[in-house]
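Q: Predict the bound structure with magnesium ion.
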Amino acid sequence: RAKARGGNRFELADPELDERAITRHGLTTALPAALERGEFFIEYQPLVHMGDGRVHGAEALVRWSHPQHGVLGPDQFIPLAEHTGLIVPLGRWVLQEAVRQACDWQQHRTESGPLRINVNLSPAQLQHPGLVKDTVAVLERAGLEPGALCLEVTESALIGADEGLLQPLRQLAALGVDIALDDFGTGYSNLANLRRLPVSVLKLDRSFTKGMQQAPVDPVDLKIVEGIVSLAHSLELAVTVEGVETGVQADRLRELGCDTAQGWYYARPGPPDQLHTLSLADAI
Ligand code: C2E
Ligand code: MG
Ligand code: MG
Ligand code: MG
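A: Predicted complex:
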């Protein structure tokens, strides 16, 4: 980044920026070995039925327990893994581990329906030709019914998607796997386009519900969410809301007809036994 300027031939590069670049480089080169050494782990965040407060499943969220940097969140390494292609084996590991965990919950569960598992898919995984085959193999090996799995794809990954990209998702949906449109509302997609996508769930982005954390709730936010819920329901899509942090938010979103919710108000992402405990409790 050093560049010629005036009498000084070189200007010092921004030291912070350099440090970030070095860290990024270090993390990128460490990724493959980290996968082999088993440094990744998954936290599970409960998904709650708004109607009765019951836990109906969980979203798998990957973390990296880095030997020097401590626990890193997905925003710090998923983009790097995407860039280098490691996301494909990493994503496969997450799927395998999360599906295995879901089977484990199902075996121990006594009442209400079986717990479902949501797994995030990144754009590079969507484009990988082995996606359908790998997913089916993971489900079969674990013995989980496809209907217990929901794959989350961001709205922005599907904007302008051609049939070639949608085909694997259609195949998975035909097998009974649910497809959710993640971070919905941030991608400026054409609403009419929704009909064309093989999705059965909209995950409404946190930004829409921020204005509802405390009373008085922003009336425009209410109207927008109300409109999205009614559109989604008329297309027979279920609505999940992300980032529910307060009781005020939960009450309003329930009144607006949202089906399921996820957020710190209910539970933070945590170890798998949290799910087991919560799901056996009456409701949260
Ligand atoms: P996402 O799929 O939209 O996941 C929800 C994010 O919101 C998670 O962040 C979660 O910890 C956070 N969150 C949940 N409840 C609340 C709340 O009440 N308030 C606030 N402020 N935040 C809340 P996290 O775990 O850092 O994950 C970030 C993103 O990384 C995810 O966003 C997802 O896009 C991606 N990601 C996570 N795991 C995987 C994975 O296994 N594969 C891929 N491809 N992407 C992943
Ligand atoms: Mg997600
Ligand atoms: Mg999301
Ligand atoms: Mg989000």
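A: Residues 77 and 283 are 35 Å apart (CA to CA).
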